[in-house]
Each structure stands twice: as structure tokens, then as C-alpha cells.
Design a protein that fits this description.
Elements: E1 2-11, H1 15-26, E2 32-35, E3 51-53, E4 62-63, H2 64-78, E5 81-83, E6 87-92, E7 95-100, E8 103-114, E9 118-120, H3 123-126, E10 136-138, H4 139-147, E11 156-160, H5 164-175, E12 179-184, H6 194-201, E13 208-209, E14 212-219, E15 223-230, E16 243-246, E17 249-252, E18 256-258, H7 261-265, E19 290-292, H8 303-321, E20 330-335, E21 339-343, E22 346-348, E23 354-360, E24 364-373, E25 376-386, E26 392-396, H9 398-401, E27 408-416
Parallel strand pairs: 1-2, 1-8, 2-5, 8-19, 10-17, 11-12, 11-17, 12-13, 20-27
Antiparallel strand pairs: 3-4, 6-7, 7-8, 9-18, 14-15, 15-16, 20-22, 21-23, 23-26, 24-25, 24-27
């Protein structure tokens, strides 16, 4: 067994883990170790060869590998230590148990940052009826097969779900010579960013069918067709209006699930909505020495947001390890009318500004966003347009945060749908 001792250990070397580790070093953590189960750092960014990353963080447009490389170089320059091909399997009281090809690794730490990212929902999660032929992929798997291994996944493609990776893959497949027949979305609105609809679907004349779903898959050795039906207001298929779309490939872009098996091993409380840990503004869980950030906490829309959020986690983890993070009473932060979830879900007493991130429950125009406590509205922000595919942010000023009375509630009121 190999034994290590460090101030801060980070699980995951994707964009969240790299940003957290660099920040921990900058904020006084002398020894920082990243645990990564793959043989290379960068996480999902390694297969995201399209541009559009880094506009907010670096002020320039980068591909995923370029964005990851910048952070990898910063981490190496900062003196972060890496254990690659190493899988974390259990968290005990301020210790982490891992395994790799050399055996068991035991790490004692002052603070732990969880940055494992998320995984895709599969056909098994959806329980789509029909046969079980070849040619059915999650969008991320197809992306890896095409961009990393250079494989062709199909010629005539239907995509279920209008998440960002699904729309990006619609463009990638089209540019590679495939015909994308349609992108099917069960909700009456887009699941991903509007910019991806414009750049990936509209620019390539790829149909988007809202309020539709797939009710059957046909094929013996390979997918031959899918049956698509509109859905009613309760999202139940209207079978009389179903249509058959011939295709040889089906891609699933139907949501992401935070990789929280390790989090559960530490008995950390999880949100029923985000499926990530319940945290305060320090990204600190109800186990005070465990912090969480990035897509393992809640699924973000932009990697730039992941980096900024994870820097906070690394900073406060370093402060906790040094005994400098104040332990104060916490109040509840809850979603109100028009809001699906809020992160963080708790706020520790503070005199500093607190950023609250959330998604609206439905799209709308002329939207008023508010933060309220028991005394009334504390913060108001007006937006021309909001959509569930975009994360919104409201900031509670420190002078209000320190005098908050009762729980905080975030609301979104639309004047137009």
C-alpha cells in the first residue's frame, strides 16, 4: 500500500478538478494531489474538438483540448501532483482509498474536493420500447468514437434530445457526411443553449421537432427506423399521429447524471433535483471537510462557469485545511415559483457577496428574477429572455447577506411565455 498525506486532494482531472487544484495551491495549500482514473488529464474536453470554449475565462475562442491544455499547464506550473490511472473507491474520515495497477493507495488529507463530472442517461434509463439492434449510442459516446478514434457511427441519424452535446453532434455528423433526419425533443422548448440551435441546427437545416418523442425502435441487426409521436401537455404520446423515420443510427442526448457514487460512500446529503451534493456558498457539503464543484455538483451549460465555480471550491478547501474557513450557522436557499433549482442550497452567515446559480422551470420573456427572505425582496434583476437551458446568476450583496432573516427564496416571474 502506498500512503500519501496532503492538504487538499481533488478527485477528477477534468476542467473542474484542474481549476480547483490550481486555486487550492494559489490559496496556500502546500501539497495538492489530483486523482484521475484515466491515463490523461482533461476529462470530457479531450473529445470536444469544436470551438466555443474559453470566451469568458480566457477571452479567446478555444477548442476543448486547447482549453484543457491551458489548465493542465497551469496545474503543472503550480506544482500540483497527479495520480493518473487511479480510481478513488471510498471516503473515510479525512482519508481517501484508491486503487491502481500498483495496488492500493491511501491518502490522508485536510480537505477533499469532489470533481468527478457526470455521465449520460442511456436507453435503459428511458425504457424506450422496441428491438435492441446495433446503432444506438449516447451522444457523448458517438462524439468519442468520431473525434478520438476516427470511427464512423452511421449514415442516416436521428437524435433524441435537444441537449447541447446532441445539437453539437448533429452538426459534427453533418460535416462528416451523414444525414441527420431530425432532432426530437419531448419538451415544448429547447433543452440546450439557443446559440447551439442557431449554429448547429439552423445553419445546417436540421429539423427540430419539439413536443415529440420516440415510441418505438425497429431493426434486427442494425437500427432500421424509429417511430416518432407528438406528446400532449402531460407528455403522453399521441399514437394516432405517429410517424416512422427511416435511419440506421439513433443518438441519445437526454440528460446527464452527476457521478456521485463516491459522494454517497461518505454519506454526503444529495439534492433530489440536481442529484449533486447539497452545499453552501463555499461549495462545502454537510461533511465540512468535503467540497464539490463542477458537473458533479450540478450540470453547467458552459465550461467557463465550471472553472470559476471550481476555483471557489479549491480556495475554500485550502482555507478549511488551514483552519481558516469560518464555521457559522446556515440558512436554507430554496427555489420558488418559476425556478427549478438553486445552487448553493444553503448559505453560511457571511459579510461577503454570495452568488446564487439557478435554472428557470420554463422559458419566458420579460422575466423578473428576485431573491427574497422573510422581510421581502432583497435583490431584483430583469431579463428580456430566460430559458431552462441557460444557468442564471443572482448576487446577494454582503451587506444584505449578513442581515438575512429566515430562508432565502429565488423566484422567476415571466410576463410573456
Amino acid at each position: 500500500m502506498k500512503n500519501y498525506t496532503c492538504n487538499v486532494v481533488v478527485v477528477g482531472a477534468g476542467p473542474a478538478g484542474l481549476a480547483a487544484a490550481i486555486s487550492a495551491k494559489k490559496n496556500g495549500a502546500e501539497n495538492v494531489i489530483i486523482i484521475e482514473r484515466e491515463n490523461r488529464m482533461g476529462g470530457i474536453l479531450k473529445q470536444c474538438i469544436h470551438a466555443g470554449f474559453g470566451l469568458q475565462y480566457f477571452g479567446e475562442e478555444l477548442t476543448g483540448p486547447e482549453y484543457a491544455e491551458k489548465f493542465m499547464n497551469l496545474a503543472k506550473d503550480a506544482g500540483v501532483e497527479f495520480l493518473l490511472n487511479t480510481t478513488a473507491i471510498e471516503i473515510k474520515e479525512k482519508s481517501l482509498l484508491c486503487v491502481n495497477t500498483e495496488g492500493v493507495v491511501h491518502i490522508e488529507f485536510g480537505a477533499l474536493v469532489l470533481a468527478m463530472g457526470c455521465r449520460e442517461r442511456t436507453r435503459a434509463n428511458l425504457m424506450i420500447p422496441g428491438s435492441r439492434p446495433a446503432g444506438i449510442y449516447t451522444a457523448g459516446t458517438a462524439q468519442k468514437l468520431i473525434n478520438v478514434f476516427g470511427h464512423k457511427v452511421g449514415d442516416e441519424v436521428v437524435i433524441l434530445g435537444s441537449g447541447d452535446i446532441g445539437m453539437i453532434m448533429a452538426r459534427r455528423l453533418t460535416m462528416g457526411g451523414a444525414k441527420v433526419k431530425a432532432v426530437i425533443e419531448i419538451m415544448p422548448y429547447l433543452a440546450g443553449l439557443v446559440r447551439n440551435k442557431l449554429q448547429c441546427l439552423d445553419d445546417f437545416d436540421i429539423p427540430l421537432m419539439l413536443s415529440h418523442t420516440i415510441v418505438d425502435i425497429t431493426g434486427v441487426d442494425r437500427v432500421e427506423s424509429v417511430t416518432v409521436a407528438p406528446v400532449d401537455e402531460k407528455r403522453q404520446p399521441i399514437m394516432e399521429q405517429a410517424q416512422v423515420i427511416p435511419c440506421d443510427t439513433l443518438l441519445l442526448s437526454v440528460g446527464l447524471i452527476p457521478e456521485n457514487e463516491l459522494t454517497r460512500s461518505a454519506d454526503v446529503s444529495l439534492s433530489g433535483i440536481t442529484k449533486g451534493a447539497v452545499v453552501n456558498q463555499y461549495k462545502q457539503t454537510d461533511k465540512p471537510y468535503i467540497f464539490a464543484c463542477g458537473n458533479v455538483l450540478h450540470v453547467n451549460d458552459l465550461v467557463d462557469h465550471v472553472s470559476h465555480e471550481s476555483e471557489d471550491a479549491g480556495k475554500f478547501a485550502a482555507m478549511y485545511a488551514a483552519g481558516k474557513l469560518p464555521q457559522t450557522e446556515e440558512i436554507s436557499v430554496e427555489p420558488g415559483e418559476g425556478v427549478r433549482y438553486v445552487c448553493p442550497q444553503k448559505m453560511a452567515a457571511t459579510e461577503e457577496n454570495v452568488d446564487l446559480y439557478f435554472r428557470t422551470a420554463a422559458p419566458g420573456r420579460n422575466t423578473t428574477l428576485t431573491i427574497s427572505d422573510d422581510t421581502g425582496v432583497l435583490v431584483t434583476k430583469k431579463l428580456v429572455r430566460t430559458t431552462p437551458g441557460t444557468i442564471e446568476k443572482l448576487t446577494l450583496p454582503g451587506e444584505l447577506a449578513k442581515n438575512t432573516c429566515g430562508k432565502l427564496v429565488v423566484r422567476a416571474e415571466h410576463k410573456e411565455v
